[in-house]
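Re: weekly structure request thread

Next one in the queue (286 aa):
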Amino acid sequence: MKKKSTFNPMYKPLVSFCIPTLNSARTLERCLKSIRNQNYPSFEILIVDGYSLDTTLDIARKYADKIFFCKGPLGMARQISVEKASGSILALFDSDIIIPYAGWLNLAIKYFSSEEKISTVWPLVIPPSNSSMFAKCYSDFSNVIIFDRMKKNKGIIGGTNSLFRKSCILDVGGFDPKIHWGEDLDLAKKLKEKKYKVIFYKDPLFHDTMRSPSEFLKKQIVGSKTFIPDDFRLTGLTRSQLIYEHFLIGFKGMLNGLLRERSLSWFYYPLLVFIRFAVYSLAQIN
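Done, posted below.
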């Protein structure tokens, strides 16, 4: 008989929101406002900025409790926030995450009270309602892949834009400061190897990202610089598995999205896959 999870309603630890920024003015205010609007009793906001040239710091100063600076890879910025955070639970969010309502954190935090081996509460992320069709396609495609990986228990799950138990992060040595793109997968892989547990939390966060093919293209170029030299080991999947899920699982997702859900955003799926494979193929040749 499966043991039922028990939650402690009095469990309200200090939560540190740890957010790296670099010229993030477009999204940062909505992100930080949504955190400040939480009705949770005890949290702090830490910003680690990469020396932004726009109004990012002006916005950060309005909402953040602590601001630090880092001119290095994203893994280094993440690790600085881990080391400087006072909370026992860390919300390692990007600067374009929006918490949808004031009670979200109160509901999400309870999962850590049920078992010490839970390192990660990993929320579903979806685009805001005013997002572009391309952003919706990117999100739908990503979630189709994520659900398939969870169903088949393959690959690495539980990256950033999640809540983490700080002691678990420290136990596995934290973030690799040399990794810029995929630093979250490296951490999740180390947590998995230590037998820590990930809770997939279906109450979503909004992720205001990948608004256009050009934005997606730029991020794929950055990502290829990590994944190609590493031979995709950070994903926990082989190249053939990645190709299979991008084409077969993605194609099934497109058919379901177009025919059953009547979601026209899936018309962007062929373009999304073409951009990703073109970038990685060119990076492989070079």
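The two ends are 55 Å apart (CA to CA). The mean pLDDT is 95.
Next request, please.
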